[in-house]
Amino acid sequence: MIKKHSLKNSKVKFIFITGGVFSSLGKGLFGASLGRLLKNAGISIHQENIIKFIKCDPYLNIDPGTMNPNQHGEVYVLNDGTETDLDFGHYERFTDLQMTKNSSITAGKIYAKVLDRERKGDFLGKTVQVIPHITNEIQNSIYQNVDEDTDFIICEIGGTVGDIEALPFLEAIRQIGWSHKDNTMYIHMTFVPYLKAAKEMKTKPTQHSVSVLQSKGIQPNILICRAERAIPIDQLEKIARFANLEPENVIPLIDTANIYDIPLSLEKSHLTNLVCDYFKLQKPKGDYLANWKEIINKMNQRKQIIQIAIIGKYAEVDDSYKSLYEAINHSAIHNDVIVQTILIDSKEINEGNVAEIIQKFDGIIIAGGFGVSGIEGKIRAIQFARQNNIPLLGICMGLQLSLIEIARNVAKIEDPNSTELNENCKNPIIWKMEEWVRNGQRESRQNCEDIGGTMRLGAYKCKLSEGSLAKEMYNNAEVISERHRHRYEFNNKYREILEQNGVIFSGISADNNLVEIMELPKSIHQWFLAVQFHPEFQSSILKANPLFLGFIEYMKNLHNTQTIIK
């Protein structure tokens, strides 16, 4: 008999989100939107409304840290340094809640834990099996997120219900539903395609997806039907009958103009009330989405246009820089402008075309990245922006390459480079640091050959210099905290010579050892600033990051912007 798990908090409500038909339906965006609805509604079982998110990814990687952004999208980093799937960015941007390492569960982590215990002899000679050992470990990992005052656990199961690797996760959440019958809800997302030849919507993919889910012992309580156009009522009723649901529990989710419209779309279908009815909770009263509607209205009233070039190296998939796009969008909304972003593959930039590519933009962002490809194109763009007074914001490798460019073309240092790009360079401006300090505690990079988990990751404090552009952008704060994801740092050996050539190191780590921000004085360049961290990871639609706010505000005030003609 499978052991029935127990929780200290017997009132916590579990909402499991599964998907069918195909992946990338938007389960993460839906979950984030549901979290925003529940947070704004203030629904609470305890003294305050506490919502936690979990993402269960069935892939065997420990985390997405070593995955190619062109295939999997960006790697999102949490405050505690956990490398996660990009859906965590949606969770935090929509809700202003912070996730932790316990929020990210992968098959790789689960199997590693179980096999480690098996090697230690914890199973006392028993045969280790997917059921119950793997499924129990999945449940335990989910339960680790439950505190005594947790109200809701919103848990997304990655992939689709037909995936072989997802089966242990589906079995685990089925068992949680059995153990906590009145406190578990299953929401299933499917796709309803329009067949142009037949001129009608087709419900069969959704029927098949629900059937597969039911065959795993899970009866969905709500269906979210994604579609590119409105789904006829009779089709929705047909789906409801097949899925053993009331028609109001089948919710259409049609493509929206922007992702931040999704909570409002779902509320029109009374999703919050359906959740409250199911869990027998008090329904929200009044216009509890007033602040969200206000920001959406503001978004729709913008007219002034700013154009920004993002110089990156992962140009095949937009999700490679998802948080960066969203941070720009958040700041654009709060500045009452529309920012048109063009992603330019740095591998396509050379000395002959850099002027033609860059000079038409109001500003450029040098995005992060790893490896040698596209490096010279980024350096060419940095040099052109510096010499032609084009506003520039460098992020992570953007800081490193900005310093290399100045070392090369201004300070005239011989063969300046990063040891990531050339281990044998004569002057390693950028190199791999082995130790650093976080919150007074010394941390070190593990001396091993592993690539995954060997970076400086998560939130670190940074002290800002008096009178600097950086301090101005951060509203004169003395100390800030931003998230990092990199292996290489600026080599302090070259600090004095670069300062003599105009560089201001305006942000330094709390232990005074690591350069976090560099900038050029306004007498040399109107707005040139680069940071070692990733400010885009701490930006949300309601709380835009100050650095992006200031960057876009500066360009807004320039004369070379356009106005939309009605």
From the structure above, extract its key features.
2 domains, 26 strands, 566 residues, ten-stranded mixed β-sheet, Rossmann fold, 32% helix, alpha/beta, disordered C terminus, seven-stranded parallel β-sheet
Model description:
- By secondary structure, the chain is of the alpha/beta class.
- The chain folds into two domains: 275 residues, Rossmann fold (3-Layer(aba) Sandwich), CATH 3.40.50; 262 residues, Rossmann fold (3-Layer(aba) Sandwich), CATH 3.40.50.
- Helix content is 32%, strand content 23%.
- Strands 12, 13, 14, 15, 20, 21, 23, 24, 25 and 26 form a ten-stranded mixed sheet that branches. It has a seven-stranded parallel sheet with strand order 5-2-6-1-7-10-11, sandwiched between helices. The chain has a three-stranded mixed sheet with strand order 16-17-22, covered by helices on one side.
Q: What do the pLDDT scores average to?
A: 90
Question: What's the alpha carbon Rg, rounded to whole Å?
Answer: 25 Å
At the fourth level of CATH, the homologous superfamily of the largest domain is: P-loop containing nucleotide triphosphate hydrolases
Question: What is the total number of structural domains?
Answer: 2
How many DSSP E strands? Answer: 26
Alpha plus pi helix count: 18
Structural class: alpha/beta
Proportion of β residues? 15-25%
Major sheet details = 10 strands, mixed
Annotated CATH architecture of the largest domain: 3-Layer(aba) Sandwich
CATH topology-level name of the largest domain: Rossmann fold
CATH class of the largest domain: Alpha Beta
Give the helix proportion (percent range): 25-40%
